[in-house]
Amino acid sequence: MFSIGGGSAGTELFSRMASSPSSRATFIRSTIQVARKYGFDGADLDWEYPQTQTAMNNFGLLLDEWRVAVNNEATSTGKPRLLLSAATHYKPEIYFNELCKYPVASINKNLDWINAMCYDYHGPWTPDATGAPAALYDPNGDLSTSNGLQSWISAGIQRQKLVMGMPLYGWTWKLKNPSVNGIGAPAVGIGPGNEGAMLYSEVQQFNAQNNAKVVYDTQTVSYYSYAGTSWIGYDDVNSVQRKVQYAKSLNIGGYFFWTAVGDQDWKISRLASQTWTA
């Protein structure tokens, strides 16, 4: 499948496209043409994120019309029906200037699955304190993967259409005081990496080269490491295994990683696959 959009694409272009029947039709027609021309099995919409309820409603209309179009195209050509998916917020609602709720009924009716992005709970946008970027549990609130998945289920998503996202990268901070180094420790901005981001493979290299202290936090089911003032929050073998077991216990559709290039010798990917199929 090919994906359209992404975090750097912004929301405005998608909002304008989804706001009228004619622009939605143009978008839908072009996705089918691209998929068939290049031999893809379907298309994924990565709109991050609809920021008003009107945009969310238009997102639902887009899905309605997209499904009709791919069904009609398959019928008329005799080809297998194209798959449709979407990347979504980790919860079925987002608050910007107003509370915006995803059109769950339309998702159930029209998409083959959603990729819930269960990560980036903390990062450079929260520079004053360290945090677990993709915590399974949040002992101090509801900023967690478990809360996100349960919220989607409570909102009525068909479980097999819900896919849990996990990151193969971490976020870094610069500690205010190296002796205060747990989750939630005071920080004074971002740490090493590319604007505070480090691939999982890079985290492993950093830990080895700097003799970093590695901690598995059982409350959040996440890892962090620190060396001097550098602090990194990320996922590793145990936390990924626990997350996959949790997702499997919910009987949801599966899991995905963003992004496979961040793995180290396929270590995490292989473990996750073995855990899911065990």
- The name of the CATH superfamily of the largest domain reads Glycosidases
- Main sheet record: 6 strands, parallel
Number of domain units? 2
- Measured on Cα atoms, how large is the radius of gyration? 20 Å
CATH topology name of the largest domain: TIM Barrel
Number of distinct helices: 8
Helix proportion of residues, in percent?
25-40%
Q: What is the CATH architecture descriptor of the largest domain? A: Alpha-Beta Barrel
| Biggest sheet, spatial arrangement of strands | 1-2-3-6-7-13
How much strand? 15-25%
Structural class by helix and strand composition: alpha/beta
SSE order in H/E notation?
EHHEHEEEHEHEEEHEEEHEH
| Shape annotation | elongated
| Beta-strand segment tally | 13
CATH class category label of the largest domain: Alpha Beta
Ranges where pLDDT stays below 50 over 5 or more residues in a row are: none
Kindly summarize this structure in a few lines.
The chain is of the alpha/beta class.
Structure description:
The chain contains eight helices and 13 strands. By secondary structure, it is α/β, with parallel strands linked by helices. It folds into two domains: 2-167 and 236-277, Alpha-Beta Barrel (TIM Barrel), CATH 3.20.20.80; 170-234, Chitinase A, domain 3 (Roll), CATH 3.10.50.10. Strands 1-2-3-6-7-13 form a six-stranded parallel sheet. The protein has a five-stranded antiparallel sheet with strand order 9-8-12-11-10. It has a two-stranded antiparallel ribbon with strand order 4-5. Helix 3 (53-77) runs parallel beside helix 4. The mean pLDDT is 97.
